[in-house]
Amino acid sequence: EANTAAKDEL
Amino acid sequence: MNIFRFLGDISHLSAIIILLLKIWKSRSCAGISGKSQLLFAIVFTTRYLDLFTNFISFYNTSMKVVYVASSYATVWMIYSKFKATYDGNHDTFRVEFLIVPTAILSFLVNHDFTPLEILWTFSIYLESVAILPQLFMVSKTGEAETITSHYLFALGIYRTLYLFNWIWRYQFEEFFDLIAIVAGLVQTVLYCDFFYLYITKVLKGKKLSLPA
What we know:
heterodimer, A: little secondary structure, about 0% helix, about 0% strand, B: mainly alpha, two-stranded antiparallel sheet, 2 strands, about 70% helix, ER-Golgi transport (chain B), KDEL sequence binding (chain B), endoplasmic reticulum (chain B), transport (chain B)
């Protein structure tokens, strides 16, 4: 399951 | 935060500042694609809607504010303040061919079917192709000012560094976001031709000229 990690990124 | 992401953000910020200063100091937006800048303004607007609802860090919030403000300032300078110097005849890329497919794709491929998530996904997809009008304009005019090529290089390197950031985060944080990674790969690949020209020409003091 891909974690939506990119939300804390610009 | 890791060194790759930090350097990527610095590179992105410097690209934005380089462009702002180039237009403001030279009082001209010759050679700059207004369409790409419009797309970037849309990218930041749709990506940072959670600016006031989701506080991550002072750094994150302040960078988002700077990105949004500077992208609107750049669009304003191109289409209003210095519109006499805007080279509309060479800025002819059909942006609807970028906006419509990415909008449709963001509805089909996303992590969560909610408005904020779909808009975030749309901004990720749109950013990966937002530079095309600018690259198209450079190929049409056959050359670019040196300052513009530095802008493009910094802008291209930022997402390349983010690719390393995602490798780092996969390795050490067990985190990955396939949508951001795939779009980031597409975005970086689109710059390859330009990177080659930049490294072989501009860094040798020559002017950037594309085979028209």
